[in-house]
Amino acid sequence: MAELVGIMGGTFDPIHFGHLRSALELMQRLGLSQVRFIPNRIPPHRGQPLLDDVTRAELVQQAIMDIPQFVLDSRELKREGPSYMVDTLASLQQDLPHHRLCLIMGMDAYNGFQQWYRWEAILELCHLVVMTRPGASLQEAMQLPGITEDPAQLQQTSAGQILLQCVTPLDISASQIRQCLESGQSTRFLIPEAIREKLEAAYARQCNSGN
Ligand code: ATP
User: Fold this and answer.
1) Once rounded to an integer, what is the mean pLDDT over residues 80-91?
2) Measured from the CB, is residue 202 less than 6 Å from ligand 1?
3) Does 133 sit in the ligand 1 pocket, CB within 6 Å?
4) What is the mean pLDDT of residues 151-160?
5) Average pLDDT in the 54-58 region?
6) What mean pLDDT, rounded, does the chain reach?
7) Residue 100: in which H helix or E strand, if any?
8) pLDDT of the residue at 210
9) What's the pLDDT at 43?
10) 176-180 long-range contacts, Cβ below 8 Å, gap at least 24?
11) Does 22 sit in the ligand 1 pocket, CB within 6 Å?
């Protein structure tokens, strides 16, 4: 059986339980040997993050520390230019030639997948694992060939399967957490307690620096 590696890309501005719980469930259910969290530097599909690169990466690192199979991968932060996933996957394939890459994304992200830079090339480099997310449902236009609900398909081919998976619905978003910070409300129980202090301090710093 090929070893499956989960790739969890995102802005992580900041990381929260919606990312962490779903990654854990998928790792256990699909037998992923690891999940790599890859914060993007210049997200191609949205505005600039509130938190700086170093802070977002440090918060990810601290949040995943207790799970040995969760790994922070900083390659997009080190790369110049827009953080195109196709480039990230090509470099991962070079580093992990004997692994099968499974790009994990929420249904909201998948619905916009055809706007991603070279999305067809992405499907030649990895499988997609699309997880349910409150408020997002599969758009008809996204019923692409290769869609399946059978995890065994990930072992049949090296790339190109689109696996739909239900995860515990957690209606948490990084935008909601940023709103809490902006309005002075608590972020407790939305993010790991271990990162709360660091996040609040980073936000205060950001405000003081006039950003
Ligand atoms: P923002 O609110 O700033 O847009 P976000 O909460 O969507 O951020 P991202 O870092 O942009 O977080 O998301 C990274 C990936 O995680 C995306 O594929 C997204 O669909 C998925 N994701 C984020 N939150 C959840 C959630 N609560 N449930 C399932 N998937 C999620």
Assistant:
1) 95
2) no
3) yes
4) 95
5) 97
6) 95
7) strand 99-106
8) 62
9) 67
10) 177/14, 177/16, 178/13, 178/50
11) yes
CA of 152 to the centre of ligand 1 (A): 26
In this prediction, residue 67 carries a pLDDT of 98
- For residue 164, what pLDDT is reported? 97
Ligand 1 contacts CB of residue 200 (under 6 A) = no
Q: How far is the CA of 109 from the centre of ligand 1 (A)?
A: 8
pTM: 0.96
pLDDT of res. 163: 98
Q: Is the pLDDT of residue 46 over 80?
A: no
Say if ligand 1 is within 6 A of residue 105 CB. yes
Start-end of H helices in 37-192 = 53-64, 75-78, 85-95, 107-111, 119-125, 174-183
With a 6 Å cutoff on the Cβ, whether 136 touches ligand 1 is no
Torsions phi, psi for 177 (to 5 deg): -70, -40
Q: What is the mean pLDDT of residues 5-33?
A: 98
Closest residue CA from atom 21 of ligand 1: 106
Q: How far is the CA of 106 from the centre of ligand 1 (A)?
A: 6
- AA identity, residue 50: L
Interatomic CA distance for residues 183 and 175, integer angstroms: 12
What distance in Å separates the CA atoms of residue 147 and residue 128, rounded to the nearest whole number? 9
187 lines ligand 1 (CB under 6 A): no
Structure tokens at 111: 């619905």
